[in-house]
Amino acid sequence: MDRTLENFITALRRSGVRISVAETMDALRAADLSGYGDRLLLKDFLSASLAKSMPEKEIFEVCFSRFFALDYITGEDFLLENEGLPPTLQGEAPLTQIFMSGDVGGLAMALRAAGERADIRSIQSWTQKGLFMQRLFQELGLEGLNRDIRTLAEIGGQDAVNQVKALKSMRDNLMERVRNLVERQLELYAAQRQYELSEGYIRNARLSALDERDLARIHKIIQRMVKHLKDRYSRRAKAARRGHLDFRKTFRKSITYGGLPFDTHWKSKKIDRPEIVVICDVSRSVSNIVRFFLLILYSLNEVISRIRSFVFCTNLVDVSPLFETHPLPEALAMLRSGAGIPILLSRTDYGGSLLDFRNQYSDCLTKKATVIILGDARNNYAEPHTEVLRMISERCKRLIWLNPETPSLWGSGDSEMKKYLPYCSIARECSTLRHLERVVEYLLRVHNR
Amino acid sequence: MSALDTKFATVEVVRRGLKDVGYIATTQIAHTVYLAYHLGKPVLVEGPAGGGKTELAKAAALFMGVPLIRLQCYEGLDESKALYEWKYGKQLLYTQLLKDKLDRVIEGETGLAESIEKLHQYDDIFFSPQFLEPRPLLKALQEKDGAVLLVDEVDKSDDEFEAFLLEILSDFQVSIPEIGTIEATSKPFVFLTSNSTRELGEALRRRCLHLYISFPEQALEREIVMTRVPGISERLTRQLVSFIHQVRKLDIKKLPSVSETIDWAKTLVILHAETLDKDMVRETLNTFLKAQEDIRVTEEKLYALTEHAIREAN
Predict the structure, then answer these.
(1) DSSP assignments along A201-230, one per residue
(2) Is the pLDDT of residue A449 over 50?
């Protein structure tokens, strides 16, 4: 397989473009058609066969220009100074010879070959920059050039001095270009290594530990997750819609038609979709998880009948209107920045927030509602008001507590989790995407029992 | 070399050919069409509404001299509407008409089983190609000299239909249980368009080449207007294209499309306009702005926009 194309595809994959084997084949055929002479043609051909969506096209643009940029060896400027100088010494090192003969192409070849030998594609982090530059200099034979310069300086004389000057400036120039080359390769092969984090890894990683940069990936995974859940649970609803024959009713009606079961009646289970009340702690420790949890819940609006959402820190605020009036991404961004929400973000107060909930919003506690509380239950040693939680638990269908901490930490220090635990139908650890998925799936599955 | 191959000899030939049928293609579009022909792959075209996605397929059909077969997608589109259907009416009519014949055929047989056995010898006469009503996809496969198949707004169809398309797009064949597999006599040139109202599946994307058509640059749009609206002066074209490009930068709901630029140009020509003036612009705004809110926003800045357009054109 074409080596250049192979490298280019590797670079694209590492930058987050998904490329299948079939697409690689297409790209090969496309490159055969276009050849490497016409850059624009090549670019359009490869773009059509490799980048299949708008975001991918953008990545492609960047990668292509980086990959096929050859400006690090344009070279004229450092060979010009050589003109009109009678060489005192022809030089023994190959690099000196290239410099003295003004062979730009030769230099480009040498640089490329040195890059191959130094295995520059395996560069992974900027800390290796120095190492790879050293390797490149070694492969290029910089040592030999330096030796020649020293010999020249010892010879002395005006011509020799001039030549030393020229060679030195050319050497500095070359060093600069090698540095550029290494940096470019780093950008190409390593800068976006985050995309190599596998999906499995992200699903199991603690959300609070993931980087801002991974957000796009997480959103993608969540989208897929949501689609999966939607498919599964809306299909079930479809199948269950008709129900089975209501024999008694059909029989009773049939009397009117002389005993013929003319008018059939069906027993269908009324499918009620879960009604959910979410109460989220938005202090720093849990805010990431809250965001993703809300993203999943609100994306599932087809299988969930109603969501009321509240956030709290020092006080409790109803944020449902935010989600009704703004598109989902915007609402989540507002929640994050706290813009337009009357919330106090000082000491986290679980007891106070629970009281707020009871006093203002207890009307949303119905026998159909599942209440989900998301938080670490770290109350800064204030009054936990467990009696309010008991009241909530008695008046709703189910109370679920999701805690981002592992169970072994529950109840330690200022965590009131142990006191709240008796009133929860279920309490679970919830710190990764996989946990979130399980919780949502559980919600949808057990709802009708 | 076939006649079509000469039409796709080089990118430049393709580009000129498209221009001859009235489609001004960017290099990128010409490149992709050329590549798609040579790889025999469908092209998935995305981009804002009114950017010329559907137009491209029409132009390609004209240019290649083959029929254009169009399948408009919508929610609930299924096989029977897209691929084929049995002509139930005809089947019913024929059984009625041939009742005597059928009676004679099974005459002399005594039992039910024997009669059915006898009928079986005549095989599936009522499920033969004569009773098949081909829908766009099958029609495209059956065209002898090839065709351009346009699957328009594929994002409007449901996931199931998208999955169903995969077989046709990769193998250019369909299977009809009663008849067998029907293969394309010559591969149709397939265009799929999408406005991204729904994210398309990875599998579909993988099988297609991808082309993004955005709104054209000013120079290109001028060229388009000049070809499409004969008799328009160069000065007016410059002014109106510059105006449209400014409007596209405003914060409005629906950006004016290329086809609407052309409509506006035609309107102005009918009104014998020589140059833009703001009263005329105000009265003709509704040719390219279709929402009251958008018209209001644009009218507020009408003076500045017109002035700027006239200045830029000079």
Answers:
(1) HHHHSBGGGS-GGGHHHHHHHHHHHHHHHH
(2) no
